[in-house]
Structure formats: structure tokens, C-alpha cells
Amino acid sequence: MIIRAARAADAEALCEIANRVIRDTLITFASAEKTPVQLRAMIADKGEDYLVAELDGQVVGHAYYGDFRAGSGYRFTAEHTIQLSLAAQGRGIGRALLRALEQRAVMAGLHVLVAGISSANPGAVDFHAALGFTEVGRLPEVGHKKGQWLDTVLMQKIMPQAGIPHPDSSDKQG
């Protein structure tokens, strides 16, 4: 298995992974499938912080992070996404992807990673807990998909290597 930065050429394989999750599961509340054009733009935007897992020459998973919320006060916090193909599940690939993403987050100066997990995906809660994430909240019935109301479980991990940044002029209120 190889963990590497995503490339534009990965867009088709990433669409297959993401669109299966969108179409066939309650893991994400998204309903619009992604296009290769959208994914190529996302890869270009995220650069080295968009990771893929490759197994036997095939892309079998991806992970990336993005803004948690708007506003400069949240700039040291990011929310991540991780998705695997069915063939990749249960093989340690998700763990390797998330560990690599955590390293990227630390290098980027992030202090906290957040996971927003569908209540229809208890395995993801267990997965994140095993990797040091703590459940910090549950938002009842904030998602709706396939005729069901679903909760979002919020989990977070404070990046131990990152530390707390020193205040700077962009922390001024006003």
C-alpha cells in the first residue's frame, strides 16, 4: 500500500469511491454525486493535503481536510473526510490514511482535527475513537437522507505535536 498526494489523474477513481458512498449509504448527507471536474479542482486546491491510498496500482481510498468554520479564530481547526472503497475496508488502509493526514495537519500548523460522523455509521465512531478522537457532541436529527433523520456525531483530536499558537495581530477582535 502507498499513501501519496492525489493527482488530477486520480479523479475518476475518486469519483467511484465518493459516489458509491453518496449514492448507496447514509454515511454522508450529500445527495449530489461528484464529477471528475469537481474532484480535479479540489485536488488542485488542496494540493499535498489531499491524500490517496493506492493498493496494487489502484486508488482505494482518500482523505483530506478543510475549514471547520468560517472566521480567522477557527484557522487552526479543520474537519476531515476519509472514504474507502469496499475492497479497502478492514485492511488498515483507513488507519494509514488518517495517520498520514494527521501528519500533514501538524505540518500545516493545525491544532484540532474534527470528524462529523453520521449516526448511521457507528463503525466510524469506533474507528476514530481507536485513533485518539474523543466524542464531544451529538447534533440530533440535523441530517436527512433517504427518508430518515440522522444525527451528526462530532469527534475531535487535539494534535499533540502542534501546541497552541502564539497570538498574533490577526487574533485581534473587531
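Second entry:
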Amino acid sequence: MINFNYETDFNLENEEAFTDWLSAVIVSEKKNEGEINYIFCDDEYLHKINVEYLNHDTLTDIISFDYTVGNELNGDIFVSIERVEDNAKDFNVSFDEELKRVLAHGILHYCGYKDKTDKDAELMRSKEDEKIIMFHVKR
């Protein structure tokens, strides 16, 4: 079950389309869908989590807490809408595309993909691109 929660004024349009897409992303990685909670928030909210739980005094676009058990993906994915907006401008892409990239990124972490090394980050970016394309494919 994929849930969307809001700690800011943002509201995801067409939650059903995003839920269907994220479920398909999980299946495409041969994983099972458990309970995944997306929490949309602002920079301040996510910064507090970053400092308190990860001891990182920086802004970030996404923090995911992975509670996956075996092949069943479970977790909480916090997304700063302010960072997504800024990143979209920085990368010269639409807000919608950058949001999809971030949403897929969290799921891909749960699937075991990393992004700390250049090689891992390259694979992660490739997987994000692959999953974004899936959003536009009719199922």
C-alpha cells in the first residue's frame, strides 16, 4: 500500500496515477509492495529530520527510512517540495519530472540501489530515467 501524506501546502494531483506507477516500479524490480509512506514537507521539516536522525546539518530533497523485510518493500520517504522545486530549476527540467525522479529514487533505494560512488550514482540515474518513462506508458 502506497500512502501520500502532507506536512506542507503541496497536494499531489492524481494520486491514483502515481500509486499505480510506483506499484509498477516495484513489480518491475521483482519486489513486493508492503507499506510505503511518502511524506511531502518543506525544507525546515526535512532539515530537522536530517539533523536529528542522520546528524547531517544540510538541506536535502529526500530522506528514506527503509523498513524492508526480505523482498517486501516498506518504509517512509520524506520529500522536500522546496528542494524539488529548486532542483528542477537547477537541472532545467519540469517540477513534475523532478518529482517523479525523487519518488522513484526512494523506491530504488529500497530495491538496493545506492548512489554514493560515481558508478552507483550513474546506475541510479539510469534506473530513475527508466522508471520515469514507465509513468507515461499505459498499463
